[in-house]
């Protein structure tokens, strides 16, 4: 696959996660929206028609990231690859970014090609809910993401101990990683990880709008006030 020059963010950006009907109502009414919204289509598949009716309102407030997470990496509703593909294709016209797991990039090759035709950028992500990979492993995954056409590499992994958090900070701060990185921790140090990583250069920093779906995810106002 032909690689592209990474899209560099001018500053760390805050992403408001929409993963429920309550999140959707909150987002549509926001007077001060985040830099971007993420649509967790795996959570929202049951209200896809309602969501579609709200897209003109949401996209006028902030650019949209769409994702339909693989069940092996925390996806809801045990969606098949075909179900995920259909959801992503349905909402692709509204998106600025599509987020796929690194492991799914080849399976979604045709969708990623369609995204490029529509000028939709690509986030390739990796989730580890049990541990934090070694720095060497993280670098290798980022390099693979770049060869698969990623504009941003996103990593979310377990941060129960200071050494795990330090590993993530070192990775985000590594000038030899030739791709913008979004990083976040999950677990006991998840909340502090999101404050620190945003200050260390994580380009996309995810926050809850109504109720957190992930251990360590911060409310949007708290994260926004902490990231310059």
Strand content: 15-25%
Q: How many beta-strand runs?
A: 9
**Overall 3D geometry?**
globular
Distance between the ends: 36 Å
The percent range for helix content is: 25-40%
Q: Mind summarizing the main beta sheet?
A: 9 strands, parallel
**Which structural class fits the helix and strand makeup?**
alpha/beta
Average pLDDT across residues?
93
What is the chains' assembly state?
A: single chain
Instruction: Write down the secondary-structure element order.
Output: EHEHHEHEHEHEHEHEEH
SS element count, helices: 9
Low-pLDDT runs of 5+ residues are 1-9
Computed CA radius of gyration, to the nearest angstrom: 16 Å
Q: Taking strands numbered 1, 2, ... along the chain, how are they ordered across the largest sheet?
A: 7-6-5-4-3-2-1-8-9
Kindly list the characteristics that best describe this protein:
9 helices; 228 residues; 9-stranded parallel β-sheet; alpha/beta; globular
Provide an overview of this structure.
- The protein has 228 residues and is α/β, with parallel strands linked by helices.
- Helix content is 39%, strand content 21%.
- The protein has a nine-stranded parallel beta sheet with strand order 7-6-5-4-3-2-1-8-9.
- The longest helix has 14 residues, at 48-61.
- The radius of gyration is 16 Å and the shape is globular.
- Residues 1-9 have low confidence and may be disordered.
């Amino acid at each position: 696959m032909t690689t592209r020059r990474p899209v560099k963010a001018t500053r760390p950006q805050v992403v408001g996660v929409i993963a429920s009907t309550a999140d959707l109502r909150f987002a549509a009414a926001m007077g001060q929206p985040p830099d971007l919204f993420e649509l967790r289509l795996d959570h929202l598949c049951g209200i896809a028609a309602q969501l579609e009716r709200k897209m003109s309102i949401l996209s006028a407030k902030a650019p949209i990231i769409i994702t339909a997470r693989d069940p092996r990496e925390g996806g809801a509703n045990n969606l098949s690859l075909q179900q995920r593909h259909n959801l992503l294709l349905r909402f692709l016209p509204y998106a600025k970014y599509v987020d796929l797991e690194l492991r799914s990039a080849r399976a979604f090759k045709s969708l990623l090609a369609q995204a490029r035709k529509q000028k939709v950028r690509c986030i390739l992500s990796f989730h580890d809910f049990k541990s934090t990979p070694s720095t060497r492993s993280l670098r290798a995954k980022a390099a693979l993401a770049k060869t698969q056409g990623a504009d941003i590499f996103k990593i979310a992994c377990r941060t129960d101990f200071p050494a795990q958090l330090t590993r993530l900070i070192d990775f985000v701060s590594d000038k030899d990683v030739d791709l913008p990185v979004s990083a976040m921790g999950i677990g006991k140090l998840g909340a502090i990880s999101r404050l620190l990583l945003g200050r260390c250069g994580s380009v996309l920093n995810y926050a809850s709008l109504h109720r957190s779906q992930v251990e360590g995810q911060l409310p949007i106002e708290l994260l926004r006030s902490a990231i310059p």
